[in-house]
Amino acid sequence: MTFDRFVGIAIVLMTWIAVAGGAAALDAAEARHLLLRTGFGATPAEARRLMPLTRAQAIDATLAGVRREAVTPPPAFMAEPHPDWPAHWRGKDEERKSVFNRARDREAAALKAWWWQEIVATPSPFTERMVLFWHGHFTSSMDKVRAPDYLFRQNALFRAHGLGSFRTLLHAIARDPAMVRYLDSSNNRKAGPNENFARELLELFTLGEGHYAEADIKAAARAFAGWHNDELAGVFRLNTREVDDGEKTFLGRTGRLSGADVIDILLEQPALGAFVVRRLWREFVGGAPDEREADRLARIFRDGDYAIAPLMRAMLAAPAFWDSRQRASLAKSPVELLAGAIRQVAPEFNDMPVLVDYAKRMRQDLFNPPNVRGWPGGDAWISTETLLVRREALARLASGIPADRALSPEATSLLLAAPPLVATATAGTGRAQIEALLFDPAYQVK
After folding, report:
1. CA-to-CA distance for 182 and 177, rounded, in angstroms?
2. Which domain holds residue 89?
3. Which residues contact 10 (CB under 8 A, 6 or more apart)?
4. Residue 156, phi then psi, degrees to nearest 5
5. Which residues are 53's β-sheet partners?
């Protein structure tokens, strides 16, 4: 039995149980809201799969469809040997260095186009939303890393563990070759600790400001000394000559602590669960949860040994998520805007480099977050400049739609998160009607 068939049978069974038990099924607005927040737009087929289900069952169905691998074949360069970075760095021949750099630029362009293709084609939009979230949380950028194969593998790491164990993901990201390069871990040596990774690990990845001291950063940096890459082989490798095995005190614990010990100590801190909960809440619900709700979700997270799926199930089931005031309250990111338009009304569009360019102009260049804090998101997506680019990009997508394409009433109702703000948005027929809907301000929100 295929996985998709298994999910389909499970949904049928859940539907029967819901009907038998008298539980309320989702209405169209609720299905649209869940699909907008966990995916890229809402299509009639997706809504029809959810609408017979209760809220809890719809959330379970969304989680059941999560994938651990991409459906799009890897970029061609991933079949090639890992580039000889040490020879490149040592080289004196400027022409050869230029050829090497141009090859990496072509690979970077292919990698971005590959992920866009996966976002558009995936049967599990929630999977790619989680990959995108972790990419903005555990940031690494092409501009700094310069190794597309490293970033492809980091992207695969987020897909494999995006709804698995945060404990596993945190340990893995500390050994991830892209992260090692991005935060200069290869420069972290026993005689001269580099604090970049340790600082961001505490401030941006796990605890947040106010839950540690400078001395903890210094101790953590010492613990991660020697966590380097083998740049010839293209893998993480512990450089035993640079390991600092001396005694350290980190967050009140003293001993000959290693980097793995530091991560385990971080996972014992109550502040970690609350920090991750608030980041996820801002992305999928909006704003900040009240303290009681944040504590409840953080407790679920900790009690489940940092399993991400149960946390997301509880968050999506929270009354605040379903509150009608939450609907149409968040600005779509450029990726959500463009991928949603393709999945909803322009499935024939396949020029991924065009999407790369438009998203970059809208300040969301995949594999290139602006800094280690990732994309600010929220209202920061909208400015006078980006609004013009958004309209231009949607016009480009709409131009390829057949002139006589008609949207069903069902598809039309799913396209906007709120009633159209321009009276003429639902007027006309065919491509003209679709374009008017895409241009309506209500299409910019979710």
Report:
1. 9
2. 76-112+125-266
3. 61, 64
4. -65, -35
5. none
Q: Residue 376 CB: number of other CB atoms within 10 A? A: 13
Residue 220 one-letter amino acid: A
Which two three-digit tokens encode residue 112?
């971005």
Question: Are residue 83 and residue 36 in the same domain, yes or no?
Answer: no
Which pLDDT value is given to residue 422? 87
Q: What percentage of the chain exceeds 70 in pLDDT?
A: 94
184 and 253 within one domain: yes
Q: What is the pLDDT of residue 19?
A: 41
- Locate all alpha helices (DSSP H) within 65-137, ordered by sequence: 85-90, 94-121, 125-137
Average pLDDT over residues 145-158: 98
Tell me: the pLDDT tens digits for 23-49? 799 999 999 999 999 999 999 999 999
Q: How many CB atoms lie within 10 A of CB 82?
A: 16
Question: Is residue 18 predicted with pLDDT exceeding 50?
Answer: no
The tokens describing 295, both together, are: 């504590």
Same structural domain, 85 and 152: yes
If DSSP codes are grouped into helix, strand and coil, which group holds residue 236?
strand
- Report how far Cα 365 is from the mean position of its chain's Cα atoms: 13
pTM (predicted TM-score):
0.94
Instruction: Report how far Cα 129 is from the mean position of its chain's Cα atoms.
Output: 5
Taking alpha carbons only, the member of 73, 142, 70, 140 closest to residue 107 is 142
How many domains does the chain fold into? 4
* 120 within some domain: no
Residue with tokens 């709409």: 398
Contact 186, 229 (CB under 8 A): yes
Radius of gyration of the chain (CA): 23
322-350: per-residue pLDDT in tens?
Answer: 999 999 999 999 999 999 999 999 999 99
Q: Is residue 119 part of a domain?
A: no
Last residue in a domain, options 326, 347, 365: 326
